[in-house]
Amino acid sequence: MPTTAVRSAPPRRGAAGATAAALLAATLVTFLGASAAPTPLYALYQEAWGMASSTTTVVFGVYALGLLASLLVVGRLSDHVGRRPVLLGAIVLEIVSVAVFLVAGDLTALIAARVLQGLATGAATAVIGAALLDVVPATGPIITGAAPVAGMGLGALGSGALVQFAPAPMRLVYVVLIVLLLVEAVGVARMAETAERRPGAVASLRPTVSVPAQARRAMLVAAPIDIAVWALGGFLMSLGPALTTQVTGSHAPMAGGATVFALTGAGALAIVGLRTVPALRVMLIGAPTLAAGIVVLLAGAQFGSAVLFFAGAVVSGVGWGAGFQGALRTVVPLAGPNERAGLMSAFYVLSYLALCLPAIAAGVATDRFGLTAVTDVYGAALIVLAALAMAGTLAMSRARTAAAAGRAD
After folding, report:
1. Is 72 exposed, middle or buried (CB count within 10 Å of its CB: 0-12, 13-18, 19+)?
2. Can you give the pLDDT of all 409 residues of the chain as single tens digits?
3. What is the rounded CA–CA span in Å between residue 265 and residue 258?
4. Is 347 in contact with 72 (CB distance < 8 Å)?
5. How far apart are CA 316 and CA 185, in angstroms?
6. Three-state SS string across 356-396, please?
7. Residue 298, by phi and psi: left (phi above 0), alpha (psi -120 to 50) or beta?
8. What is the dihedral of CA 160, 40, 349, 107, to 10 degrees?
9. Global pTM value
């Protein structure tokens, strides 16, 4: 690295900025779509390789752990070496991971592919979020919030459709993803750089996790809903296809993908639709909506009603999008400019541990107690978390109102 900063091309605005933002958004959708693409295939892997439910959730969980590690280590690297090199490296690593999926013939290869995919996605998520703020500062945060959620839904649904209706069900989806990634790599290579090169690249690889004193109360209030929404996502993206089969009686791969799409599609719409609503109010919408959706989803699972089950997934998805967005917007603005990286790292640690660890525990428990019983207990725990978030958010809202009234006096 040079010892002096080298100024790059200035951020683009207008049509050029919109084009760059579209490319970045499409790439983010592809990465997160690829992360959900194996979901409809888990039943085929289980049948072909004799995998248990606990193994399925481990395969899902190692992806989240790889993603978290990558976010913490390379999350700030593009601030020093530029956006394009980091994003191109992430795309190359993602192509390698998808190629391993393509040729995978056993569980070991599947786990290796998921670890590589997690590492690539973590790097891409961090750099694309920063690049979107460079080219479209006003809408960048909205795209960063909605595109990953939409990508997961489209990836699961599209993968399910290819598995069910196209030839080579365990291979074709990965060929499609490699083609998309290669096209996007060409676009990124031609994209103008928007960040300055500056020293400190090696130091930026040191993970920084901290919650500033002024943000700790908000983090404590936001934690239950953040844990609940990501734990629900982890459950449905790992055990969702098996649960959907149990409820609907259909073994069609697209059915499992439809469950994830219902959750994440509704979540993406909620993120966009509530973008101008105050953060605390968004959390007050998200917590009860999530709880209500889980109740309906559990009812569908208990009574074998596909209508209730998918309706519950949609309502839960609205709560998921609102809860996550509200939690993020409640906590992050409380950090100073030099505290944001550490706080975001702490938030990501919480989110991605919630995504993988409860799902792994649920998979292990399913082998012993059965999927229905585990679903009931899991759902009840998430409802309790949503209730805690509701109570904490109401208390914080009252405290802020009282403080504002005191200042007015």
Report:
1. buried
2. 333 333 444 445 566 778 889 999 999 999 999 999 998 888 888 888 888 878 888 888 899 889 988 988 887 888 888 889 999 999 999 999 999 999 998 899 999 999 999 999 989 988 888 888 888 887 877 888 788 888 998 999 999 999 999 999 889 999 999 999 999 999 999 998 887 788 888 887 887 777 888 889 999 999 999 999 999 999 998 898 889 999 999 888 888 889 999 999 999 999 989 988 998 999 999 999 999 999 999 999 999 999 999 999 999 999 999 998 888 888 878 877 667 657 777 888 888 899 889 999 999 999 899 999 999 999 999 999 999 999 999 998 888 887 777 766 6
3. 10
4. no
5. 35
6. HHHHHHHHHHHHHHCHHHHHHHHHHHHHHHHHHHHHHHHHH
7. alpha
8. -140
9. 0.83
Instruction: Show the DSSP H helices in 75-200 as ranges.
Output: 78-81, 83-103, 107-135, 140-165, 172-190
Distance CA(162)–CA(160), nearest Å, equals 6
Strand partners, 6: 197
Cβ pair 359, 239 in contact under 8 A: yes
Q: Which two tokens stand for residue 87?
A: 């994003």
Q: What is the DSSP letter of 6?
A: B
DSSP assignment of 42-78: HHHHHHHHT--HHHHHHHHHHHHHHHHHHHHHHTTTH
Question: For the residues of 125-139, what is the DSSP string, one character each?
Answer: HHHHHHHHHHH-TTT
- Positive or negative CA dihedral for 287, 118, 26, 204? positive
Residue with tokens 């683009």: 12
Task: Please state, in angstroms and rounded to a whole number, the distance separating the CA atoms of residues 366 and 55.
Answer: 11
Per the structure block, which two tokens stand in for 355?
């995504």
- Structure tokens that stand for 187 in this block: 């676009």
C-alpha 55/C-alpha 367 separation (Å) is 10
Burial class (CB in 10 A: 0-12, 13-18, 19+), 407: exposed
Query: What number of residues does the chain have?
Result: 409
C-alpha torsion sign, points 363, 365, 371, 375:
negative
Question: Both tokens of residue 254?
Answer: 């697209």
Tell which residue, 161, 155, 159, 153, has the closest CA to residue 173: 159
